[in-house]
């Protein structure tokens, strides 16, 4: 974990402290697991800072990430540390009353992004996880240019992590930190299926 | 996250359930961040299963991973979920009384591994994080062959995650799951230093 001297000192007129305190936009992409898992690991640090954490999952299954959700919700409920809001597309976003939302995934995804955009404008959270968010972008459900602009020009000091395979190039372009999770070996290669506690 | 049909069904005489329930040995390596962060993200799932979690950090600084440590200790202290033990080499391993342990890092690292080996034999934990463990292996402080054999032949159903750069090939060889975190872009490239809540 680099805490030493940066390789390049930019000529941007900022002090080291100003530069250090810039909000981070991170993209976790690649074919291998660990993208979301690392984002939720980052959320542990955010929680320890007492930050407001907002998780937005662009997935269908309500069971997805149930381990991480249960753990982070438990942390968010404690007196100490930050707060945690966890919203899932699969069940219909919690801020809407629509139960039939699942019938139109594209509309649900757009609705999710519209809410995130509002929250970014309001500076509602300190740390956002947009989990599996690359898929609705890839599928053309959400306008990539709008996302790029809204994240790039977000006010204040809001950190944003986007996870998912095949992150669009325009998004990678404006990210401060991009990690690619690459597969070297996976248990499924030798016929092992996912298991409780490890995969979910 | 793959929960479907594996690509290959091996001729190993095991049922799918037996194969599924095999303990996993994972290695998170590569030059980029996210290796430890993803391991602690996995610990959230382990906690949600009610598992006994043992974290062993092979690092000098007592402040390293303080966010993750505080959060996981808070989870471990709850009535629900699993238990969390967190041991750090930097302060002298908590099970020893030696205060001068820091003066000989190689000896401390060997002492840490000896304790992990005892715990594996006793099946003390369900989920182990051996954080930054590749370094004492690389530096020749701990015998790689001993580690490979002890992890490969561990009894019962104990999951083990090793993190760190440059994982030795022998270790990668026996791992079920190997992820390489690859750098696409890092804030330090443009002169940004690490910051609170993001890096630690």
UniProtKB/TrEMBL annotation, chains A, B:
Question: What Pfam families does UniProt report for this protein, alphabetically?
Answer: CobA_CobO_BtuR
Q: Which GO terms describe its molecular function?
A: corrinoid adenosyltransferase activity
E.C. number(s) listed in UniProt: 2.5.1.17
Residues spanning the signal sequence: none
Assigned keywords, A-Z: Transferase
> Know the name of this protein?
Cob(I)yrinic acid a,c-diamide adenosyltransferase
Q: Can you name the source organism?
A: Amycolatopsis pigmentata
The lineage is: Bacteria, Bacillati, Actinomycetota, Actinomycetes, Pseudonocardiales
Tell me what gene encodes this.
Answer: cobO
């Amino acid at each position: 974990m680099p805490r030493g001297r940066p390789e390049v000192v930019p000529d941007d007129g900022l002090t080291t402290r100003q530069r250090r305190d810039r909000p981070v936009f991170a993209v976790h992409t690649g074919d291998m697991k660990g993208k979301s898992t690392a984002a939720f690991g980052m959320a542990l640090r955010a929680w320890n800072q007492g930050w407001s954490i907002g998780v937005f999952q662009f997935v269908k299954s309500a069971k997805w990430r149930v381990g991480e959700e249960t753990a982070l919700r438990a942390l968010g409920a404690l007196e100490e540390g930050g707060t945690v809001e966890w919203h899932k597309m699969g069940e219909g976003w919690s801020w809407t009353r629509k139960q039939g939302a699942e019938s139109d995934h594209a509309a649900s995804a757009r609705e999710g992004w519209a809410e995130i955009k509002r929250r970014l404008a309001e500076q509602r959270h300190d740390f956002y996880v947009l989990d599996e968010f690359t898929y609705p972008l890839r599928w053309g459900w959400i306008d990539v240019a709008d996302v790029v602009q809204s994240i790039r020009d977000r006010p204040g000091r809001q950190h944003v992590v986007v996870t998912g395979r095949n992150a669009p190039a325009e998004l990678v372009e404006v990210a401060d930190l991009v990690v690619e999770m690459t597969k070297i070996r996976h248990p499924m290669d030798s016929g092992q299926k996912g298991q409780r506690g490890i995969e979910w």
